[in-house]
């Protein structure tokens, strides 16, 4: 039970480790022209998502 609590607390690090392990096991998914299309997703979708999330975190009082 203690391990599960620790994993819930450190969910971001667990996710990073899983992402790195997945990339090590199957690197062809992230290659240019691969199924994830990183030339498009990183350039446009990821940047737009970061800005959108940043905008959502702003307090409405600061916007007025």
UniProtKB/TrEMBL annotation:
InterPro entries: Na+/solute_symporter_sf (IPR038770), Put_Na-Bile_cotransptr (IPR016833)
Pfam families linked to this entry: SBF_like (PF13593)
Any GO CC annotation of this UniProt entry: plasma membrane
Domain of life of the source: Eukaryota
PANTHER family: SODIUM_BILE ACID COTRANSPORTER 7 (PTHR18640:SF5), SOLUTE CARRIER FAMILY 10 MEMBER 7 (PTHR18640)
Record family assignment: Belongs to the bile acid:sodium symporter (BASS) (TC 2.A.28) family.
Protein name stated in the entry: Solute carrier family 10 member 7
Species annotation: Propithecus coquereli
Protein encoded by which gene: SLC10A7
